[in-house]
Fold these 2 entries.
Entry 1:
Amino acid sequence: MFQIGPYKLANSVVLAPMAGVSDLPFRRLCLEMGAGLTIGEMISSNPDLRNTRKTLLRSRHDGEAEPRSVQIAGNEPAEMAAAAQYNVARGAQIIDINMGCPAKKVCRKAAGSALLQNEPLVEYILKAVVDAVTVPVTLKIRTGASPEARNGVAIARIAEDAGISALAVHGRTRACAFKGEVEYDTIADIVNAVDLPVIANGDIKSPKQAASIIEYTGAAAVMIGRAAQGQPWICGQIATHLDSGVTPPAPNCDEQFAIIMRHINAVHAFYGDFMGVRITRKHFGWYMQHLNSDPGLRRAFNALQTCEEQLRAIEHYSQITESRTTNIEVLAA
Ligand SMILES: Cc1cc2nc3c(=O)[nH]c(=O)nc-3n(C[C@H](O)[C@H](O)[C@H](O)COP(=O)(O)O)c2cc1C
């Protein structure tokens, strides 16, 4: 049983926080399709940004299943504590702290994974946030700042002492960004070093792979990021496989198009026409990577300018795309 604070989760598969991807429509879809927990896109702790359209959209939870986990990013302990309180007041039931993101926009301000090289500051931030709220606080890290400074175990001990309720670890260092192989040895070392639940993350693309990483590292759960793009059902497939050893088939082609329609309608309703059309292009491209590899189709879709045109096109593509079942195990082989 995977538990974070008082929350007993339905299973041990977590959808990763992904700015620009894990918005409310995508989180709701992944939860509905079997994820045990989802984490929202990071929200800056800077109070000056609280009322921007981007932050307001990222702070919405209407219709979202519990527990609602909200990720905050920043580098100033008091500001992070205030951001945690602010988000709890707006419905967050778990606060997740971002010390895993290598994005320049985050790291320029020495936030995200750049914080990992400053262990005293990590400790201040974690203690300040844990003390500020009564909800569980979780932490997301990489294995260290660079391969030469892989201090994931030290950070995990700091996290445990500070009262962090669960720790997600992406098996790359900050310096590695998204390049090179993920290594799971440091994740296994962290699992051995601390008692808090550890969530293994990085390049997990299939149910079998998730099972072997849990076995190898001893992690309590897995976190799925990019593999869920265009496959919101994958968390559910992994969860069933971890429970029973059996991988349910992915939805067949017709079912996938029905899911796409539902997703895209939700994106349009959530963002409105202008942003909705642009965000849909991204998701549609990910869905088509698995369903229809014709590059002309994606180009044509990206030229569409309205929600109605996009919905009509998806309807049309659903009729011309060959009906078949996508077998995730084959895709991941
Ligand atoms: C588009 C994108 C946006 C991301 N945004 C965040 C974020 O807001 N916060 C965070 O902690 N990590 C973020 N990440 C990192 C992911 O949570 C995850 O750690 C990483 O993608 C590795 O997992 P994966 O190999 O399953 O994708 C992002 C990754 C991607 C691809």
Note: Residues 16-21, 41-42, 71, 98, 100-101, 140, 170, 201-204, 224-227 surround flavin mononucleotide (CB under 6 Å).
Entry 2:
Amino acid sequence: MHNRLLTLLLLAVTVTVSVHAQSVSAKAREIHDSAIVIDTHADTPQRFLDENYDIGSTDPGDHGHISLDKAKAGNLGAEFFSIWVEPETNRGHFARHTLDLIDSVYEQAARHPDRMTMAFSADDIERAHREHKLAALLGIEGGHSLENDIHLLRDYYRLGVRYMTLSWSNTNEFADSSGDIDDPKVEHHNGLTEGGKQIVREMNRLGMLVDISHVADKTFWDAIAITKAPLIASHSSARGLTNHPRNMTDDMLRAVAKNGGVVQVNFYSAFVDETYRKAAEAQRKDREAAIEAYTDQLKVAGKTVTYIDRDRIEREWAAKIPRPPLSSLIDHIDHIAKVAGVDHVGLGSDFDGVSGATPEGIDSAADLPKITQALLDRGHSGENIRKILGGNLLRVFREAERVSREMQAAVSAR
Ligand SMILES: [Zn+2]
């Protein structure tokens, strides 16, 4: 009897605590709303292009993470939209698909000029914030978009691209990826090639942020050794807590701190929770077989599998694993703040790129204030929380802009 009562009491306490963790106090709301909140990775352009999704959507049944309403509710000030070209289905026309995705973001901004604006600099982000508009920025996810042509890098910069992830999950012509580093069928380079190093330097000169999310460990060390500007991990978490090769080791975190850069924590459940990661890994073979079977089925019908198809199947599999608590995500922010310092951590959600597999309570950009509440609960000051929410990224962006001006001035003075 006593034991049952104790259990009930414990249960009541647990429920109260978790309900409390989900609600946002006036103080947390005030801190959150006083910040310029910047997220450095959302895959929503896949939806713009494949699904004809409109960011102005008010559909309450829409499962997407990003809409203008959701951004407003979560005080999201700036989003780096990911320009990600799936490397299998787009073989032979990476650049064209890159351009199509870039266009899809501009078209959304053109449809909603009163609520969304393209942004190309740290000043632009601040301007958009003053105008109460969502700042839309562009980041290319994967160097294969260059088609091994440095001229395209400059063209992408001119079109407004402000970061490039040196590789996605696929090793490309100049950078090894963590995604296939153990695949003997893939030709690797032992990190960055000489051409890859040239690309990093050209990115520095242009003022395009060098992004090391997804890259193989050696690529990371090569990039950080030669970059003249602080670099970013646009959407990466900590390997010390969740043992995924996509995550960053403590040594890497310390190196980013020394470089003055910032690690933007990825919200994907398999990157922030070890239990979830193991469960997802255990079902990987079956999940991939299901996607392959569906792809073959479409092939017979003369169609190719889209991002949306894939996403739907991934969602079905993700639903079989319990979502991790929000505290798992906060643990990663805390860990990076401890190892690298509070000046070197931020948010890189991977919204709309993880088939809904985010921690409990984080269902869209509207839930971002819950992160502020959780950080406040763990004793972070308002000032530090504002750095994490966007201040750090703004600092790094400004510094990369300064390095770019300096490098260009040095050339023109010659
Ligand atoms: Zn990614």
Note: The first helix runs from residue 2 to 22.
